[in-house]
Amino acid sequence: MADEIPDLLGASPVPVADGATWLPGWLAPAQQRWLADQFRAWAAGPVPASSPLIHGNRMSTRMVCLGWHWTATGYRREASDVNGQRVLAVPEWAQRLGRAAVAAARGAPAPDYQPDVILANYYSAEARMGMHQDKDEQADAPVVSLSIGDTCTFRFGNTRTRARPYADIPLASGDAFVFEGPARLAYHGVTRIHPGTAPPGCGLDSGRISMTFRMTGLPG
Ligand SMILES: O=C(O)CCC(=O)C(=O)O
Ligand SMILES: [Fe+2]
C-alpha cells in the first residue's frame, strides 16, 4: 500500500537540466517557519549578517555563513571582513536536511552528502544576485538551495557563459533546488524578487531567504 500513497506535500521533482532538479513545495510551512527562525538566530551572531564585497561592490543580499565564512577571495573559518569571529558550525539537522534534498532530487539515498558549509542570504525586494558559478568549493558534491518567503526568479543557465541558454524558474517559499554533476558549475543568479508573494505562515512577511548547502572539500 505504501507506494500508493501520493506525495501530498510537494509536486514531483522537475528536471531543469542534466544534473539540476527543482523540488517545488518540498518544505512544509512549519519547516519554512522554523528555518526562518534559524536564519534570524544565525544572523544575530557571533558573526552578524553582512553584505560581502565583490570586486569593490557590495552584494545586495545580507549573508550569514555557517561552517566556513565565504568571501570573494575564498572560504575561511573566521569572518575577517566582518568582526573576526569564528562562524557557527553546521548543525547536524541541517546536514540531514541537505542530504534529504539530494536524495529527493536523485530519487535515491545520498549517504555521502555531508555539507560542511551553509550560505544563507536575505533578499529585500530590491536585492539581486548576478549570474555566477559556485566554484569556490574543491569538491564536486551537489549544491542544495532552499527558499523561504517571497518568490524569486531564479535564472539557471549553462556551464559556458552567463548568457542563454538559461531557464527562469519561479522559486517559491518551500522549494528546493539541487544542482550537481554536469550542472554543478552552471551559471545561475536571482534576477528579481516578487514582493507580496510570501505565503502566510512561511515565517517571513517580506523578502526572501535562501540557504545553500555545499561541501567545500576543504580539510578539517
Ligand atoms: O538565492 C539563491 O537561490 C541562490 C544563491 C546562490 O546562488 C549562492 O548563494 O551562491
Ligand atoms: Fe550560487
TrEMBL record:
What GO cellular component entries does it have?
Answer: cytoplasm
rRNA-binding among the record's keywords? no
Instruction: Check the record and name the Gene3D superfamilies matching this protein.
Output: Alpha-ketoglutarate-dependent dioxygenase AlkB-like
Q: Which SUPFAM superfamilies match?
A: Clavaminate synthase-like
One MF term in the entry's GO annotations: ferrous iron binding
Name what cofactor the protein needs: Fe(2+)
Record domain Fe2OG dioxygenase: where: 114-217
Where is Fe cation annotated to bind? 132, 134, 188
- Name of protein: Alpha-ketoglutarate-dependent dioxygenase AlkB
Native organism = Lolliginicoccus lacisalsi
